[in-house]
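Take a look at the protein record below with the fold in mind.
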Amino acid sequence: MAQILENVWEYLITNFSEFQLASAGTFVIHESVFFLSGLPYLLMEHWGLRKYKIQDRMNTPAAQEKCIIKLIIYHLCVNLPLMIISYPVFKYMGFTSALPLPSWKTVALQIISYFILEDFIFYWGHRLLHTKWLYKHIHSVHHEYATPFGLTSEYAHPAEILFLGFATIFGPAITGPHLLTLWLWVSVRVLETVEAHCGYEFPWSLSRFLPVYGGADFHDYHHRLLYTKSGNYSSTFTYMDWIFGTDKGYRKLKALKTAQEAHDRMSAPTEKVE
């Protein structure tokens, strides 16, 4: 497997410049992962699948179409130029695409550190966007979808895309990683944010197995409350909200829901065995 990956990589760096791979290549990776992971949730909305739906409401076809059209415009006019102008900074910090490829241990450690940095920066940036003026003029665009689905994860005002996009590229920008690491980081970050906005809580959802991971239910609560102090500001983990008490409403709601479910089980009539 390693040899196959190296052969593919050698083909890429032989036939394309590093700038092309770092800009256009990263854009293609991002778009592919984003739309391929987000479209299934869009189809679930379209088909009205409700078994694992967090909210009962569904978005209209017109709202779904609006989201997709604006996403394509934003990605071409904001994301792609950002990837292009970021290349000199990455290169200055030691970015490379050359062989040999980095070890999986190095890749894993860097991506974990990127998640921690991104989550910390995102929390404060997101919390700032929920102040009155910034929410009204910028962040309210993202909150047009009170019932999120996967693709709404990147539906936002262009200023917000740049503002919170800084959290995503900060880790790679200061470490100058290998291109392979960058592509993997972009992929897993996109998968995480799409899942957080998917609107579904499945038995196999990662949040059921990792207590510090937010997931769809955690972020769905944030979208249901359309005002400036909704809480649950973190992107990936939950500990920042817990430390600063910005998840109190969510935890209270979860406790009430758990208590109600327990009460319903206790109150349920039992069948008599004859």
Observations:
- The two ends are 62 Å apart (CA to CA).
- Residues 61-92 form the longest helix (32 residues).
- The mean pLDDT is 92.
- Residues 221 and 250 are 7 Å apart (CA to CA).
